[in-house]
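subagent[fold] <- orchestrator: predict structure for attached chain, return tokens only, no commentary.
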Amino acid sequence: MAMAMSDSGASRLRRQLESGGFEARLYVKQLSQQSDGDRDLQEHRQRIQALAGGNLKRNVYQNYRQFIETAREISYLESEMYQLSHLLTEQKSSLESIPLAPLPAAGAGAGAAGTEEAGAGAGARDHLRGQAGFFPAPGGASRDGSGPGEEGKQRTLTTLLEKVEGCRHLLETPGQYLVYNGDLVEYEADHMAQLQRVHGFLMNDCLLVATWLPHRRGMYRYNALYPLDGLAVVNVKDNPPMKDMFKLLMFPESRIFQAENAKIKREWLEVLEETKRALSEKRRREQEEAAAPRGPSHVTPKASNPFEEEEEEEPAAPEVEEEKVDLSMEWIQELPEDLDVCIAQRDFEGAVDLLDKLNHYLEDKPSPPPVKELRAKVDERVRQLTEVLVFELSPDRSLRGGPKATRRAVSQLIRLGQCTKACELFLRNRAAAVHTAIRQLRIEGATLLYIHKLCHVFFTSLLETAREFETDFAGTDSGCYSAFVVWARSAMGMFVDAFSKQVFDSKESLSTAAECVKVAKEHCQQLGDIGLDLTFIIHALLVKDIQGALHSYKEIIIEATKHRNSEEMWRRMNLMTPEALGKLKEEMKGCGVSNFEQYTGDDCWVNLSYTVVAFTKQTMGFLEEALKLYFPELHMVLLESLVEIILVALQHVDYSLRCEQDPEKKAFIRQNASFLYETVLPVVEKRFEEGVGKPAKQLQELRNASRLMRVNPESTTSVV
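subagent[fold] -> orchestrator:
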């Protein structure tokens, strides 16, 4: 009941809205006055929207059949217009191919009429075949390409190519005629997406592809031209909805086309193969005729004239010997196509084997024109093969598989005599792989953990690349090894950039930086197993960053020492507990101060100032971490930094001795000075010599001097 009332309400609302005197403004005003609130207006709006949607669906359903019939009629009309256009073109070609001659007598008129009737019948047959894509040449064609049949073929080609913009240069080739043509749809090779509609024109020596002009029916625009001797045809297996397709391979390019149906696809494949076979046979005959020796007619006059025998026999012998190169063997005739197939199937080894076989056969043989022509064809395939191998080694390809994945392409390039290019491409490929591996490495929170991973990834890749390089380029020009060393230095620069950005730019502590550099050195030394020492390179690249780190940490120690000196009260240390005292003894022992016991007093007292003890621990810690970073280029930097740090403490003690008036404090200051001169300085000097391998003259001078800096005794101003 409610549904019936709703339907009646909707019908009444529809009649009201569709009435001729309906006024929207008045209707909305009345509706607003009658509604109880916002909800009523929203419900009424929904009813009107539902009514509008229903009307739209009803109109579509009512006109749907008419839409289908109209589209079908348009399709029929387009097909008939296309057929009519082809029929007119064929009739025009047939009329142009009939040779003009004076009218014969009455008796011959019947024959002319019969000829005209036969021509009309041939035109009808041509139309029927033209719908399938054939354009047979009218008239008979002679072997040498002369006669009216050849003229008819040329006219047919001219008439058809007048519909293709930008291909007038094709008509300059003598003996060229149309074999087959038809509509095709081109698909994208990787994702099988439809690209465009094209029209293919198969000539006796090439294939022309033209695209449709959407606003000019029956007209095309030139797209590409492919010689048949460089073209490989591959049948694509049907995989619904992708069917009736075939692929054309023109390396380094390939294109996929779809025919209208399976019959037309089969005709395309058959005609392409037959035309390629005919072209190959024609060129083989031309080579045989060019390579054949001269006939007896040329020899007879030489033998019949005894006076010219000596003059003509000597030059004639090398002339016959120069042309005596047998190129009629089947494997030589099929060599260009076999190379195309090998390249298409990525059988690079097979292609290079064929080239080696040909070079071995033609070795020490003359080079008459047929051989030069064959060489030109083979050189074009070598160029295509080289481009494919170069693409295999390009960084755009997948970098997975490690260095061994490049061995196949590198080895074939070396066999082709392009060792330098193979070396360059191999190293460029590996540089891209190393860069990608470093970039994909996730930055961890702990710097040392990230450096461990970075060193493992980089040096493992470098080691694998070096071993693969030695395997691939063994026995080649030694210049390749120089190129590898240059590449290794460049790769090391890439590694140091990532290393420094994480270690030095982030202002890590000197101890962390020292551990990271130590890890990098250890990994670098592993390359010595294969005779590659890059330690000096990593030192040269890191020296600037390490100098900056040493200078920065030196300034931190100096500032901390000055701050403690400004608050110095010259009092003994009270560690409060035996445990704290024992810990301090262990720390000083770790710093190399073995006689620290003599500076400890009763209970937990230490007869040294807190400032001097803290300075000793900080200075020895700096020295230990700096020695981990040490290499010869940093000798003076480290030594000067140590001297600057020690001078700050010694100058403060010297100044305090001259300024202090209290005898007890003065004695305590002398005890601290004695500790610095007689204990700390010898320990620093000894540890520096152990770490560097040679003594430091500057440190010896500091220890031997009774006072490091003599200032005005009456001055009470610190020089620090």
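orchestrator: received. Logging for downstream: The longest strand covers residues 178-187. The two ends are 106 Å apart (CA to CA).
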